[in-house]
């Protein structure tokens, strides 16, 4: 909450790590249903995240929203991140050529204001800083 505003104040860019949250935002529930998940979706960090009912409900709402718009979750997550002020570019870790191609498609993806608003409703964040983390 405080790093990005500080970076912006000093004219620095931010390069976020793990933009898909270890696969959680890359279609983890769909892959779970299809049985096509990787180690991270089957028993790693994204599986641990999905064990939390609140997280699982939000990820389900996210995937449902994107399915309605016929968009790929991983591409939207990266495109959303690229649309954020102060973010220079995410660190992606593609394991396959398909993952790399998907990440590259995200660069060209433009998210509508309607979709951005719906994403903010699903993942509201803590609020504006510094108020959100003030005691």
Radius of gyration: 15 Å
Structural class of the helices, strands and pairings? mainly alpha
Q: How many DSSP helices?
A: 8
Helix content: 40-55%
| Strand segment tally | 0
Low-confidence stretches: none
What is the oligomer described by this structure?
single chain
What is the CA-CA span between the terminal residues?
A: 14 Å
Q: Overall mean pLDDT score?
A: 88
Q: Give the overall form.
A: globular
Strand content: under 5%
What are the main properties of this structure?
mainly alpha; 8 helices; 0% strand
Summarize the structure in words.
With 135 residues, the chain is mainly alpha-helical. The protein is 54% helix and 0% strand. Helix 5 (53-68) runs antiparallel to helix 8 (113-122) and helix 6 (73-83) crosses helix 7. The longest helix is centred in the middle third of the chain and has 16 residues, at 53-68.
């Amino acid at each position: 909450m405080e790093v990005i505003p500080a970076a912006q104040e000093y004219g620095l860019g931010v390069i976020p790590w793990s933009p898909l949250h270890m696969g959680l935002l890359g279609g983890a529930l769909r892959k779970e249903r299809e049985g096509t998940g990787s180690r991270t979706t089957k028993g790693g960090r994204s599986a641990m995240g999905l064990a939390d009912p609140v997280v699982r409900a939000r990820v389900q709402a996210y995937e449902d929203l994107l399915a309605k718009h016929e968009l790929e979750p991983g591409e939207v997550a990266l495109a959303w991140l690229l649309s954020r002020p102060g973010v220079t570019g995410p660190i992606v870790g593609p394991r396959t050529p398909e993952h790399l191609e998907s990440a590259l498609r995200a660069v060209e993806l433009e998210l509508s204001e309607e979709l951005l608003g719906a994403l903010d409703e699903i993942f509201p964040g803590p609020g504006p800083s510094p108020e959100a983390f003030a005691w």
